[in-house]
Amino acid sequence: MDTVTITTQPFSDQRPGTSGLRKKVKAFQVPHYLENFVQAIFDTQTDLRGGTVALGGDGRFYNREAIQIILRMAAANGVKRVLLGQGGLLSTPAASCLIRNYKTNGGIILSASHNPGGPDEDFGIKFNTPNGGPAPESVTEAIFERTKSITEYAIIESQAVDLDQPGELTLGDTRIQIIDSVKDYADMMMQLFDFERIHQLFNSGVFSMRFDAMHAVTGPYAKYILEGLLGAQPGTVINGEPKVDFGGGHPDPNLAHAHELVSLTSGPNAVDFGAASDGDGDRNMILGRNFFVTPSDSLAVMAANAHLIKGYATGISGVARSMPTSQAADRVAERLGLTCYETPTGWKFFGNLLDAGKISLCGEESFGTGSNHIREKDGLWAVLFWLNLLAVKQQSVEMIVKAHWKSFGRNYYTRYDYEAIDKPAAEGLMVHLRSKLGSLPGQTLDNYQIAYADDFAYADPVDGNRTEHQGIRIGFEDGSRIVFRLSGTGTEGATLRLYLEAFEPDPSKQTQSTETVMERLVNIALALAEIGQRTGRTEPTVIT
Ligand code: G1P
Ligand code: ZN
Question: All domains of the chain, ordered by start, with CATH?
């Protein structure tokens, strides 16, 4: 098989965002676009030459085509072995698990996470380092630098590889092992959770569940683990067939997009437990009967109850949450005498803390929770954690969460997204807010007294790396907060995120609607940032 060197020119827009390089499929289909980025990975991650790489994706449109290209480039770039998920499928957490289990020199994951898929929708690629986690900024910046000066890439000429046949084949001098996408991951889950107990719960006759795979990658994982190993009723997993366009839906597990699941957990015939995961399987949504658990609360409940779960029974070392995530976990950490780290948005910031053993659990308000078992957030892991907790406590989701609020106080939480707004307008809005920071502390707005206002910066406690401009935080004396930040994963214009949190310690006031509690804070935020005037939007695109 011949290696050919193709002459190319740099693209100027290949800087990875919060979670890899994400663009419209059409952008990736431009000749050389994907190839340039992949070559930049091989050029900068030199251990891949002569090494092993894990490869797979969430199955979205262009997944298979991209995998064929990457396999041929891996062969041309001297990769010794590729571990490929069968059918080109690997959930992001399963990829992280494989990288760690087989000690590969990294992994290439194809996904645009929760963004829609299809010829006119999104695609993405990211590189994970040998610890199994998303590449830190030093690595993504090196890859980006390389894309700016690239002049050629190497690829071999060959027939397409059959991605669906498990086993081993060679491409040039490269061994390609096509492995079961689910098995290693399922084995790991069995180590962490009490499968016998969960099995009993499913067989008790008084417990029902639905898991919504949203036509994305977790379908095969959830069917094997929940219906196969744990004995849940067939049909527990809905929308379980991965589709290239996710059935035309938006594979984002939240109240706005997982409507089918929401309706199955509502009303008099509601199931006891509902859960969903996103396009690539790293996000999760947890629902009880007529009850929604905010991701921030989910993290806090997990931290408070970790001692009841097999894989964490010996205790957790610490907790971390991304900055916009509510401070519910902080309260648990404080009670347990642990540190709660506040990191910038994006899972990559948890990596060092996990590697250094400073934390065992971490999470983000954006429906992401995870632990030190891998280096990505993990949707099904969170679902199994909750199932294990329900099996141990023999209480409903609602009872568990309400008892938690009673003990620790309730952090009401909501997020407003203004999607695809004009980029200069969004940037102007942030500049305007930054200019106000100095004068805000001490001011009182609608009876809310501002305690601090800053532009969040983070110094990594392990390697000292500083990350600046991670969002505007406005904190009030009563523990409430408003946060503004621009998304780093959007592919159209800019997305402004407004995060709101209100703290309520009094149990008799903990059952108000979030909307009611937030009303005044929302108005303060709208006025402060001049959202209407500057973006032309009177309503957010999505409220979660
Ligand atoms: C969003 C979420 C963030 C998450 C990321 C990848 O990023 O807000 O928490 O880590 O997706 O799933 P953003 O678009 O806000 O930069
Ligand atoms: Zn995802």
Answer: 3-179 (3.40.120.10), 185-408 (3.40.120.10), 410-543 (3.30.310.50)
